[in-house]
Design goal:
Helices cover about 35% and strands about 15% of the residues. A 7-stranded parallel beta sheet has the order 3-2-1-4-5-6-7, sandwiched between helices. The protein has a single domain, classed as NAD(P)-binding Rossmann-like Domain (Rossmann fold, 3-Layer(aba) Sandwich), CATH 3.40.50. It is an alpha/beta fold. The N and C termini lie far apart (about 35 Å). The protein is globular.
Length: about 240
């Protein structure tokens, strides 16, 4: 039986994806991975906790493999813009080595480690679409304002890691399609401190983003390429 895997499943958009999948395909198994515990409102989900270290990721993938799970959709919903340790840098003087490494670990390195560990399992898939949450702000060609150094650079690094992964997956797991997805500015704790000046019609609810993402995925097929698309299904410049 096909299953959907949602990594970073405690985020608001991830929860919306889970609810959408449950409504659309109630018989499909949903596997969720998060640092935190399962929210009470998300019933009917197989929930796993992970600290996202590579040994933890490898152990979970082994459990999925031993359970003969096959995934037709994977969502890697990991990302950080700010927390108690970091906030977006506006000037070069605000750069800090520890903060940069912290942001890169979450935004770029951990998603790549998931794709590394999942490769043997996804090689068996008859068709799997893998969405990794990126951001337009990671586009080098679209950077006209500067600032937000760590976040921009980590998302650009993520995109390059995904591009190389897509090339290798095309050879080794040709039934897998990779999508780097820009959800737009969404009303979540990640963007809320920075969304005051966002027009109302450009500030999206998580459920809307989940709906658009699932609609976009329906139109994608494995082609050996990494797509970088926004919530409208439009290509984002690298």
């Amino acid at each position: 039986m096909n299953s959907s895997l949602i990594i970073g499943s405690n985020s608001h958009i991830a929860r919306a994806i889970i609810r959408r999948l449950q409504d659309a395909e109630p018989s499909e198994k949903i596997i969720a991975v998060s640092r935190g515990q399962q929210p009470a409102e998300l019933e009917g989900v197989d929930w796993y906790q992970s600290d996202y270290s590579e040994p933890s990721i490898a152990e979970l993938v082994k459990r999925f493999t031993d359970s003969a799970l096959t995934f037709n959709r994977v969502f890697i919903c990991l990302g950080i813009l700010h927390d108690q340790k970091v906030s977006p840098e506006k000037r070069l003087e605000e750069l800090n080595s520890d903060a940069i490494q912290h942001v890169f670990q979450i935004n770029a390195i951990t998603p790549a480690l998931w794709l590394k560990q999942l490769l043997p399992l996804l090689k068996q898939a008859r068709g799997c679409k893998v969405t990794i949450f990126s951001a337009r702000i990671g586009s080098i060609g679209d950077n006209h304002l500067g600032g937000w150094y760590s976040y921009r650079a980590s998302k650009a690094a993520l995109n390059m890691l995904l591009k190389s992964t897509a090339i290798e997956y095309a050879r080794r797991a040709p039934a897998v399609k990779l999508l780097a997805f820009h959800p737009g500015t969404t009303d979540t704790p990640l963007s809320r401190p920075f969304s005051k000046n966002v027009p109302e019609d450009k500030l999206f609810q998580p459920d809307f983003v989940a709906q658009r993402l699932l609609e976009i995925l329906d139109g994608l097929e494995p082609d050996g390429e990494l797509s970088f698309l926004d919530w409208q299904g439009k290509t984002v410049a690298w």
